[in-house]
Write a structure and sequence with these properties.
By secondary structure, the chain is mainly α. Helices cover 76% and strands 0% of the residues.
């Protein structure tokens, strides 16, 4: 008779976190055994924690560059290169596809078709250029390595904290896309995601955390509302655009409060 005993919470959480790392980064983790049907949706609750780790990696690169007496702007660009490397440019690619689709499509079907095309158009190129420029300039304005490290950890967490909320509150824009296959997270998963993002921000930013949380929330909501208007729902690319907008909003806010 098969063992029907429930999986211990600690084991389930570690499996969900590992799946989040696999999905969000290039780190060579492997899962043992088959995935549960709702595994991808549950993993979304841990996206902010993975984002904080990604941010710490970029902040460490910035600190090492500063130790080598590299000025703030090129150090910031090196930090962003590190973020792109460890994530495989996942979010930048999504933002570029959204810019191309929303900017060049006449209707929902055409917008989704453009977003699925692997080629990058002028809107997509401009989206990546402005995303890198805005984030690099904000980081260089912060300048201090410790401040940059905290800013990247917080922005990495907060910019991924709203993805689960988007997936729960909005339907997928297409039935056969990545977002549809991930499934709809539960309210508990959304709460976990938001709580982790807020906790990381509070630990990293202390008094500036409320402003950063507000900035990330507004940026994520703006992308979600735009996606609802443009294509009637969300896709994996919309998650990427929301992440880029949230990260830029947090870094700009922190640079204004420095």
């Amino acid at each position: 008779m098969p063992d029907a005993s429930p999986i211990p919470p600690a084991r389930r959480w570690s499996s969900d976190l590992a799946l989040a790392v696999i999905f969000m980064t290039r780190l060579p983790l492997r899962l043992s055994g088959p995935l549960a049907e709702d595994a991808h949706a549950r993993a979304m609750g841990w996206f902010p924690l993975v984002g904080a780790g990604v941010g710490l990696f970029g902040g460490t690169v910035y600190a090492l560059a500063s130790l080598a007496h590299i000025p703030p702007l090129p150090a910031a660009l090196l930090a962003l290169c590190a973020l792109v490397w460890i994530t495989g440019g996942l979010h930048e690619d999504g933002a570029a596809d959204v810019a191309d689709g929303f900017g060049g499509g006449r209707d929902k079907a055409r917008k989704l078709e453009i977003m699925r095309d692997s080629r990058v158009g002028s809107y997509g190129v401009l989206a990546i250029v402005f995303s890198v420029a805005i984030r690099a300039s904000a980081l260089s304005a912060l300048a201090d390595p410790g401040t940059v490290l905290a800013a990247l950890a917080a922005s990495g967490a907060l910019s991924r904290g709203g993805m689960a909320a988007i997936a729960r509150r909005m339907a997928p824009a297409r039935a056969d896309g990545l977002a549809a296959r991930q499934g709809r997270p539960t309210a508990a998963t959304v709460a976990l995601s938001i709580a982790i993002g807020a906790a990381v921000a509070l630990l990293a930013l202390t008094a500036k955390a409320p402003a950063a949380i507000l900035a990330a929330t507004l940026a994520t909501a703006a992308v979600a509302l735009l996606a609802r208007r443009q294509i009637g729902g969300h896709t994996g690319d919309v998650f990427g655009a929301a992440q880029q907008a949230g990260e830029a909003a947090v870094l700009l806010t922190l640079s204004a409060l420095r």
